[in-house]
Amino acid sequence: MLTSITEILNLLKKYGKVEKIHKDTYVVEISPGKVRELCEILHWKLNGHFSVTVGSDERPVNGYFGVYHVFLLDKQKLSVIVHVKVNPVTLKIPSITPIIPGANWHEREAHDFFGIFFEEHPNLERLILPYDWPEGIHPLRKDVNVRELRYKLLKKETGLVVEKKAEEEYIVPIGPYHPALHEPEYFELYVEGEKIVDARYKGFHVHRGIEKVAEERLTINQVPFIAERICGICGYTHNVAYCQAVENAARIDVPLRAKYIRSILLEIERVHSHLLWFGVLFHLLGFDTGFMMTWLVREKIMDLAEILTGNRKNYGMNLVGGVRRDINEEKIKLSLETLDYVEYKLRKILDKMLKLKEITSRTKEIGLLSREEARKLSVVGPVARASGISTDVRRYHPYAAYSELEFKVPVYDAGDVYSRALVRYDEIFESISMLKQLLKNIPKGDLTAENVKVPEYRKGLGLTEAPRGENVHLVITGRENKVYRWRPRAPSYNNVPSTLVMLKGEKLADAPAIIASIDPCFSCTDHVVVIDVRTNVKQVLRLKEIARGK
Amino acid sequence: MANGIFETLMLVGETLIYPGAVFSFIVAIFTQWFRRKAYARMQNRMGPTYTGLAGTLQPFADYVKLFFKEDIVIIRGYAKLPAFLLALAIGALIAILLMLPISPYSVYAPYDIIVAAYLLIWPTLTLAALGFLTPSPYGALGSSRLLTLTIAYEVAFLISILTPVVLANRILGAQYSLYLSSIYSWLLWTNPVLIPLIIISLLTALISLQCKLLEKPFDIPEAEQEIVAGPFTEYSGPKLAFIIFIHDIEQYVNSLIIVFLFLGGVAPFVEGPLWAQILVVAIKYIVVVLVLTWIKAMVARFRVDQAIKMLWKYIVPLSLFALIVSTVI
User: What is the 3-state secondary structure (H, E, C) of B93-109?
Assistant: First the structure.
């Protein structure tokens, strides 16, 4: 077992050129043939976990496509980025999905956006691009221009695309619009009576192309605001992760007061997000009284966010190098009072509700995800912590002001819906205690760093612990104050595939609670699946055709 | 023969106006408003406020809105059959009203409790059939869940209401008639030996009524978060209004049965003035509705297997015990 950093660096040096890009973060550039070997060592032998695969078109810079596999080694507090140069003619590199099944979606996304083929990938189908997207156009390549793309898409005429034969079992669709889940997604549950025998998922209904917009049209300091709009609940964490990535790349030192303010807002966001989740869980279990009660308390937290930032959501507080607004003594006093009230109320409400027999009998030993499965799929956040994996970016890769705080990382072994609830229950109170520490100890000082200059073609990795798990942003800075490549990876990206494992063999009535137990965050929809009752063939229609009265 | 014509006219009037269609529509609006308001207050919410005094006319506004909407008939669905079934269920429920002391000219005969039992099952069958008449998977699943529940809760509810009827017959000679049992049931409370039996069957009747009304924790067939609205997913406009009306009127009729059979009907004012009798029945009715709402606000939904287990393990044996003891006592 390798433990010390030098030993790991020596190991990495055997495989290729190692470069330190910033604190505790190393890029190792290796040849395609050695990818699998190194990834297996990093994920399985060193007990790290696979975090994200980023494709990148670097032909204007060095003539190659790039693929970055990011691994986080929690024990050693290291981040290792495995960089593979991909030949722009053959476009082939070995897939790591056979070793780490969690990389499935990541590689399919790189295939969609850059046309990179991952050899021996079990299922290299389209993931994000719609079914009727023309072949051979890979939107994130640098030679694809947004304006040209629009012209090409308008001109093409595609008809109905036949997808797949529906199977013999009875299909219960959950989505694209469904009262249980308040975002568009599409789960197909194959049921026998009340039992789920199989499940399929189709997401990314409207991929908004934020990455392309940021790379083509925005400057470095405009991206934080669009990053905040990635998620409707935990947007600020994306904002912070992006800013940290750029700050790391440019080696900017953020003032301590700004770091404290970032941490305060991140924790406020976590509390309100977890309370929202509890409300949704109670609602899905048919316990509307619990839903109303938790959201009543959540409203206090939303008010707190408004007092501190001026907004309930989308705080807009960050810039590269610091924060935009200050917090004064009066607000700190008010916040501490609110937190005391919220803590008292929540202890009273949640303690009672988590002991209710109807709640426990419908969450205990339901939606099981074993530790091995969790490791394989590389799940993150509360889902991983409920399956006995102790992972928390705040503890193992400290950012903002977290290195100066005392807190516990709650871990439960059962791997069911109930333990996911318990992890979040503990985290709420940990967050409240962290908030109190932060508000009491906030130091005086500047809000932003001076002389913010971002050099070109530097890589930076920004990590935050979002309410739903670890949130990773990889940024390659570009020329003229622009971003060359920005890849935000939201935590649900790693967590959603695990629902398909959890759903198998469970009762239909438990499906909504299981899907919600990972606290999924989906996106918006633009096409509809039609099942022809006679031929049992599923078709995907474009909105245009529906409008024509098809 | 003149008497016969008078009787017929009376019955027609009762069916259409009091306590039939018109009156039950008014009661349905009140009941729905009361449940919504009480449920909302139990959850720290406002409930209906704008339409009418304290929102009392909100259910009426909802009904009007639905009645004047387009009646959408889906492809591979039926237009007239659901309407026919809905009318049948409403008719069955109003027919029960004629057998209760609430109507000025009641219909009764020995052993008519069997007719009442038959009529009580109609709404359930209608709702189940509605789901199977649509090609939606949610409808079929909802209906199969409803029928699964039916075999448990209908049994429990019938056994529960049989207990006071049997007791009334054995002790007071009510001849197994719903009307006569309702009139004499208050006398059962004067005998201390019978009180535990009445209380047990009252409890089982309330719980199985909650299930009959598809309210939490038994709203499994129309569990919004799992199968959208179950049997009613594909219905909109006037048909949906009638489905909601059936729900409200079912609440009204069944709660009245409980008021008359278990809670003694007009009890402290058996000889008293009419207004006092009406007031007493209204108060008892509101208490029954409030208890059901309270259960709804307090619990989370069961899964279908948990609900069946609970009903067969506790509710049916308890009600059966009360019934057997009441036949032996």
Answer: HHHHHHCCCCCCCCCCC
| Closest Cα in chain B, distance from residue A278 (Å) | 14
CA-to-CA distance for A348 and A429, rounded, in angstroms? 12
CB contact (8 A) between residue B300 and residue A293 = no
> In chain A, which segments carry CATH 1.10.645.10?
210-516
Write out chain A's pLDDT in tens, 550 residues. Answer: 556 788 888 888 888 888 888 888 899 999 888 888 888 888 888 888 899 999 998 888 888 999 999 999 888 888 899 999 998 888 899 999 998 988 888 888 888 888 899 988 888 888 887 776 777 788 888 888 777 777 776 665 544 444 444 445 667 777 666 666 666 677 777 777 778 777 777 777 667 778 888 888 888 888 888 888 887 788 889 899 999 999 999 888 889 999 999 999 999 999 999 999 899 888 888 888 889 989 999 999 999 999 888 888 888 888 888 888 888 889 999 999 999 999 999 999 888 888 888 888 888 888 888 888 888 888 988 999 999 988 889 888 888 888 888 889 999 998 888 999 999 999 999 999 999 999 989 898 888 888 888 888 888 999 999 888 888 999 998 888 888 988 888 888 888 888 888 888 888 878 888 887 877 766 422 223 333 333 334 444 444 443 443 3
- Chain A and chain B share a number of CB contacts under 8 A equal to 73
Q: How far is B232 from chain A (nearest CA, A)?
A: 14
Long-range interactions of A294-300: CB distance < 8 A, separation 24+: A294/A349, A294/A350, A294/A353, A296/B44, A297/A342, A297/A345, A297/A346, A297/A349, A298/A272, A300/A338, A300/A341, A300/A342, A300/A345
Task: Say which residues have a Cβ less than 8 Å from residue A224's Cβ, sequence separation at least 6.
Answer: A239, A242, A243, A318, A319, A320
Q: How many CA atoms lie within 13 A of B94 on its CB side?
A: 24
Q: Report the CATH fold assignment for A5-150.
A: Beta Polymerase; domain 2 (3.30.460)
Residue in chain A nearest B46 by alpha carbon: A292
Closest CA to A423 of A439, A413, A412: A412
Contacts A421 to B, Cβ<8 Å: none
Instruction: Select from 1.10.1200.10, 3.20.20.370, 1.10.645.10, 1.10.10.10 the CATH code of A210-516.
Output: 1.10.645.10
A352-357 long-range contacts, CB within 8 A, separation 24+: A353/A282, A353/A287, A353/A290, A353/A293, A353/A294, A354/A421, A354/A422, A354/A425, A356/A287, A356/B299, A356/B300
Query: Which chain B residues touch A359 with a CB distance below 8 Å?
Result: 300
**Token digits of residue B159:** 């056994």
Contact residues for A403 (Cβ-Cβ < 8 A; gap 6+): none
Distance CA A178, CA A12 (A): 48
Identify the closest residue of chain A to B75 by CA–CA distance: A533
Give the residue among B25, B235, B29 at the shortest CA–CA distance from B126: B235
Residue A191 Cα, gap to closest chain B Cα (Å)? 10
Write the Ramachandran bin of B44: left for phi over 0, alpha for psi from -120 to 50, otherwise beta.
left
**Of the candidates A246, A502, A237, A481, the residue with the CA atom closest to the CA atom of residue A366:** A502
CA neighbor of A270 nearest in space, from A281, A278, A282: A278
Question: Which residues of chain B from 71 to 100 reach within 8 Å of chain A, CB to CB?
Answer: 76
DSSP alpha helices (H): ranges in A319-448?
A: 329-355, 357-363, 371-377, 381-386, 393-396, 417-441
The whole-angstrom separation of Cα A496 and Cα A517 is: 10
Which of A289, A517, A297 shows the shortest CA–CA distance to A412? A517
Where exactly does CATH 3.30.460.80 map onto chain A?
A: 5-150
